[in-house]
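User: Show me a protein chain along with its predicted structure.
Assistant: Here is one chain, sequence first, then structure tokens.
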Amino acid sequence: MRPKSTSPVSSGQSILSLRTEIEQALAEGADLSSLVLHLTPRDDSALKRHPSVAVADIDFRNGEMHFLGVKVLKGETSQLERVSA
């Protein structure tokens, strides 16, 4: 079982909180390859359209979306997950 972040993203939270969670995880010593951002389809769409998210913050490599270098997967809930690298 993989350890998960204790702070899921809810629809009431700002998309910008995703950036803060990623920066906090990196400051705590997490490696980008050990992070996975799970987003609901709605949050995935909102992230791509949010006016404060720069085009350079989202990229697509090998058919996978990355936000600030963190791999994004669509799921039932939105949360930042730390996985074993």
